[in-house]
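Subject — a protein and its fold

Tokens — whole-number codes for backbone shape
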Amino acid sequence: MSYPQRSWDDGDVEVVAKRLWAGGVATALVAAGIAFVGVLIINSIFEVGIQTAGRSGALVDNASTVIPIAAGIAALASTALLHLLLMTTPRPASFFSAIAVLVIVVLILQVFLADGSISAHIATGILYAAIGVAIVSMLSGVSATSVRPVARGGWGGPDQGRYDAGYGGESRSPYPPQNPYGGYGDQRTQRYDPRGQGDQWR
């Protein structure tokens, strides 16, 4: 069964944890790949080291291993935060975006405030920003498909209308559907009467 995409801020949806965490693991793999490629470009092409965010300004040892692992862990931690916000907060999209931006900004500021060369500052800041933006953007797409309408006795939505995934809304027409053969009612539920009624459905 497929479900239409819903806004994070809808109040009548529930989180599909399996889908959310599957997307989170995929995001972690992509983030690790971006980090690995970024480290190779910075080290091999520009011949600049990846700087730590500490005050010492030391370069990261084995950056091609450490940075991708850290990026994957950051993606999984972001997925956990997103899951918590989806279940508890009234506006999870706003809170998740604000927290993610703050973390990225603080991390980049720590890099530029540390000792070291300006080239290492710029290269490391760009790499961290690219990883952070990739994680936030991918998890934003994942979250949009990780919620579904809350089922209530087989009928969707908090009211009485049946949720129709094909039309993306609830049918609440005040009139019963018309039968093209006369009368009202859904012709699919009617029965043909061979007793002198011609081609009328009843």
